[in-house]
């Protein structure tokens, strides 16, 4: 086999060859870019705070849209129905701007302030599934899902962070 | 006292590293060997110094010295010894120190070897790897000092390393403890693996830079760094797989990969590193595309630093970003500087690294490998875009947006499909030229066999087209590799009179590297099988059962037998369900889904009960139970077909890398030439 192929290839002009590969390369790269752009358009989600969700909801911008939303979990509101796996809780507005969070003394403090402040806006969350281990008072919840009714958010994904459990806080029982 | 020793040796190691970098530059600039020798000695010193530093921190952790802020954050009295030690990488400053320590170890190992004819590389390898180390020790010394302590000054508690005026050391009685979710064997070894992979990639980068600076455009830098690259790649792969395993075992959502930004930041250097491995191969075999490996290793290096930065900056919303920190901007400056400097160097040497060879056929091995590199880079671009798009969008339009898993999945599926297709042809393709006709001749038999991959699932009642394609590709890759091995064995059998096992070993030895590659790719395909299984065929159900009641999820039935609640010596309250797994009325196994409540942190951890076989996993989560009567309990149940192959694939890959890096016997037919015998 090899001998014939070899002759054939050597007979071919090199420039034509280069063009062939450039076209091949461009086609592959174009396909990947198309894939990226089309997937991106189909899957972009707004990342909002509770305030923004309520604003936009009033403006009617959010109906049926998949959004991502973050806020502080209010511990007393957590209710779980074992039979239906229906988990409900309330999240409180926390500013998304890092500077504002820093001004409040870090994420843990911002979450604490949010939960303690009855004047802040809040949103009811419904989720069907297992109750996450990190779901507790003053945890930061990052939710993906849709607004289903007036002030009710149905999440299909829950991500929780408890900043106090990790770093950055002075432990409360100090002894000398 | 120990904290002082730890910080002291950290600080001395900083000074010595800075000195080493300067001495190496000065020595090579003035052609003075003694300065280079001195830089070499400096490098040798850094590792023991950092070992003292790491040792001190471990000592503080083991002895519950909670007056040290870091210790009080990641450790607690009730934690077992092994967790206290591994708490070294349980938080930010400790893991940065651990990072520096690993890099110092690798740098010493490189610098200590015999340099003989590569003397000209030595100073630059020192400059690059030690320079990187300086950056990390700087972070540890001035921004993320793990030896900072609590001091009481008047009525305030302040955090400081040195004694404030009128302050005295205070400490809490007990520490906060490592997050319970992280107390898992997988989590104990996952970060070091990840870090080993990250850090080991710095060595090939140092060689690449040395090669650029000295203008030596031969393959030497690649030969010298080949083992580093392979081990780096293996560790990074294992880091990713262990992370997936931890998610599967502990996070309790029946998944293994969530396209979390921090997962992605570990995946990105893996993608560019894999592309680098393959580009290196083309250069070694064909002397082509010599700029590609350099571009790719520069990318890998910067992505390694970027990955560490993403994990550590708290910039992203992720299950991983445990800390918010001020070191973000410093990281970005460092990345920008090294990135610009590397590419400036490359552009100034661009012509030197040009090669005369050109591509001749789409089906030649180099062309196929090139396509797979482009696919890997496409995946890299996608993930990178996904991670930075929210930031860019906010800058441009002011709207905060994110992209979730569906985005990545939609792009990844066709790209991974493309890569599997290339894996079908690649073992049969030869270097430099091959015609489609020739390929067709070799392909039809494995193709016929691979149809099993379609026929069997269809008989089994499968109708999903993407899944059928995926199964078929998997069968095809396996068939091609199997046939290729048999064919080579047969060829040798015709000419040599040996026993069959002899022939098999010989064939293997003669072309060790290409078989190692085959093994690794078979491992990848096994992993693909596991991913296909869980992505396409996962089913789930849930239910609340009284004792003795059953819940069905085809093909299994689970019976809830009882619930046991007890305390453990390490301060956990365990609720453990006993569940029987049955099939056709016959009891196959007993599994124990449970929930551990950690008293010290007040946090529960859900651990599933899993019955795992080659065919499928039956995965049961204990969701909740009626506290007083323990009569009823709620379970969530998953059926995950084939997922075990994901972990088996990882073992196969380890074997492949060990084979590839096994020290070679010097023989006259050293497996350099990979051209197929006719």
Task: Give the SSE layout.
The complex is a heterodimer of chains A (176) and B (678).
Chain A: H1 2-11, H2 14-43, E1 44-49, H3 50-58, E2 67-81, E3 86-92, H4 98-103, H5 107-116, E4 122-128, E5 140-149, E6 152-161, E7 174-175
Parallel strand pairs in A: 1-2, 4-6
Antiparallel strand pairs in A: 2-3, 2-5, 3-4, 5-6
Chain B: H1 2-29, H2 33-62, H3 69-74, H4 81-86, H5 92-112, H6 122-143, E1 149-153, E2 156-160, E3 167-169, E4 171-172, H7 185-200, H8 202-214, H9 220-251, H10 261-286, H11 291-313, H12 328-348, H13 365-397, E5 401-403, H14 405-425, H15 436-450, H16 452-459, H17 465-495, H18 500-510, H19 512-537, E6 539-546, E7 550-553, E8 556-568, E9 572-583, E10 586-591, E11 594-598, E12 603-607, E13 609-612, E14 616-625, E15 632-641, H20 644-661
Antiparallel strand pairs in B: 1-2, 1-3, 6-15, 7-8, 8-9, 9-10, 9-11, 11-12, 13-14, 14-15
Helix pairs in contact in B: 1-2, 1-6, 2-5, 2-6, 5-6, 5-7, 6-8, 7-9, 8-9, 8-11, 9-10, 9-20, 10-11, 10-13, 11-12, 13-14, 14-17, 15-17, 16-17, 17-18, 17-19, 19-20
- What is the end-to-end distance of chain A? 86 Å
Q: Fraction of residues of chain A in helices?
A: 25-40%
Task: Report the portion of residues of chain B in β strands.
Answer: 5-15%
Measured by DSSP, the beta-strand proportion of chain A falls in 25-35%
Q: Report the principal-axis shape of chain B.
A: flat
Low-confidence stretches of chain A: 1-16, 164-176
Q: What summary fits the major beta sheet of chain B?
A: 6 strands, antiparallel
* Domains of chain A, number: 2
Mean pLDDT of chain A: 75
């Amino acid at each position: 086999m090899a001998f014939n192929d070899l002759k054939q290839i050597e007979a071919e002009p090199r420039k034509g060859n280069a063009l062939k590969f450039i076209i091949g390369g461009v086609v592959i790269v174009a396909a990947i870019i198309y894939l990226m752009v089309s997937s991106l358009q189909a899957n972009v989600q707004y990342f909002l705070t509770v305030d923004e969700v309520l604003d936009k909801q009033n403006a009617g911008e959010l109906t049926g849209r998949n959004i991502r939303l973050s806020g502080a979990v209010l511990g007393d509101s957590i209710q779980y129905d074992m039979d239906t796996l229906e988990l409900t809780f309330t999240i409180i507005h926390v500013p998304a701007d890092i500077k504002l969070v820093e001004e409040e003394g870090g994420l843990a403090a911002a979450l604490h302030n949010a939960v303690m402040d009855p004047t802040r806006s809040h949103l009811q969350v419904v989720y069907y599934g297992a109750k996450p281990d990190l779901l507790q008072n003053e945890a930061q919840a990052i939710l993906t899902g849709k607004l289903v009714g007036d002030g009710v958010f149905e999440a299909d994904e829950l991500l929780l962070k408890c900043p106090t459990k990790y770093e950055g806080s002075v432990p409360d029982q100090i002894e000398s | 006292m120990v904290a002082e020793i730890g910080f002291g040796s950290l600080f001395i190691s900083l000074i010595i590293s800075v000195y080493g970098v300067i001495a190496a530059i000065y020595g090579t600039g003035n052609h003075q060997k003694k300065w280079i020798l001195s830089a070499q000695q400096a490098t040798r010193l850094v590792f023991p110094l950092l070992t003292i530093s790491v040792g001190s921190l471990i000592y503080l952790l083991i002895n519950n010295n909670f007056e040290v802020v870091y210790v009080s954050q990641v450790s607690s009295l009730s934690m077992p010894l092994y967790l206290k030690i591994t708490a070294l990488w349980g938080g930010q400053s400790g893991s940065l120190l651990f990072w520096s320590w690993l890099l110092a170890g690798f740098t010493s190992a490189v610098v200590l070897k015999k340099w003989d004819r590569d003397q000209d590389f030595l100073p630059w390898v020192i400059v690059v790897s030690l320079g990187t180390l300086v950056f990390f020790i700087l972070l540890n010394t001035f921004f993320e000092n793990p030896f900072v302590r609590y001091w009481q000054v008047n009525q305030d508690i302040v955090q400081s390393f040195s004694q404030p005026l009128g302050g005295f050391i205070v400490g809490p009685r007990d520490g906060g403890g490592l997050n319970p979710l992280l107390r898992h064997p997988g989590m104990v070894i996952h970060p070091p693996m990840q870090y080993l992979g990250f850090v080991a990639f710095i060595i090939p980068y140092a060689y690449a830079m040395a090669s650029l600076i000295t203008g030596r455009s031969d393959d030497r830098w690649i030969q010298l760094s080949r083992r580093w690259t392979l081990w780096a790649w293996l560790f990074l792969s294992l880091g990713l797989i262990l992370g997936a395993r931890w998610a599967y075992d502990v996070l309790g959502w029946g998944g293994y990969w969530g396209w979390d930004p921090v997962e992605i930041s570990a995946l990105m250097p893996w993608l560019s590193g894999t592309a680098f491995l393959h580009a290196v191969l083309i250069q070694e075999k064909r002397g082509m595309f010599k700029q590609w490996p350099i571009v790719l290793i520069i990318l890998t290096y910067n992505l390694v630093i970027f990955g560490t930065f993403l994990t550590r900056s708290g910039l992203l919303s992720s299950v991983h970003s445990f800390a918010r920190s001020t070191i973000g901007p410093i990281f970005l400056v460092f990345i920008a500087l090294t990135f610009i400097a590397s590419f400036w160097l490359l552009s100034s040497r661009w012509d030197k690294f040009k090669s005369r060879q050109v591509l001749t056929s789409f089906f030649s091995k180099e062309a196929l490998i090139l396509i797979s590199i482009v696919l890997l880079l496409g995946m890299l671009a996608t993930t990178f875009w996904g991670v930075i798009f929210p930031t860019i969008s906010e800058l441009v339009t002011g709207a905060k947006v994110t992209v979730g898993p569906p985005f990545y999945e939609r792009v990844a599926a066709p790209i991974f499909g493309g890569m599997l297709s290339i894996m079908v042809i690649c073992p049969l393709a030869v270097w430099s030229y091959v015609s489609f006709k020739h390929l067709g001749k070799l392909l039809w038999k494995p193709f016929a066999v691979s149809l099993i991959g379609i026929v069997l699932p269809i008989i089994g009642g499968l109708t999903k087209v993407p899944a059928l394609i995926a199964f078929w590709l998997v069968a095809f890759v396996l068939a091609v590799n199997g046939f290729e091995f048999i064919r080579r064995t047969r060829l040798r059998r015709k000419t040599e009179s040996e026993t069959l096992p002899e022939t098999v070993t010989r064939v293997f030895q003669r072309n060790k590297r290409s078989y190692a590659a085959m093994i690794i790719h078979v491992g990848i395909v096994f992993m693909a099988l596991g991913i296909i299984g869980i992505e396409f065929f996962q089913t789930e159900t849930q239910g609340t059962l009284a004792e003795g009641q059953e819940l069905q999820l085809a093909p299994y039935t689970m019976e809830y037998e009882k619930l046991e609640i007890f305390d453990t010596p390490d301060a956990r309250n365990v609720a453990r369900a006993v569940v029987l797994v049955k099939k056709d009325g016959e009891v196959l196994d007993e599994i124990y889904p449970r929930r551990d409540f950690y008293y010290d942190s007040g946090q529960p951890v859900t651990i599933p009960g899993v019955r795992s076989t080659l065919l499928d996993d039956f995965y049961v989560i204990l969701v909740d139970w009626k506290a007083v009567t323990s009569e009823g309990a709620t379970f969530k149940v998953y059926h995950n077909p084939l997922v075990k192959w994901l972990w088996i694939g990882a073992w196969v890959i380890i074997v492949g890398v060990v084979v590839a890096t096994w020290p070679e016997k010097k023989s006259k037919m050293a497996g350099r030439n990979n051209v197929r015998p006719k």
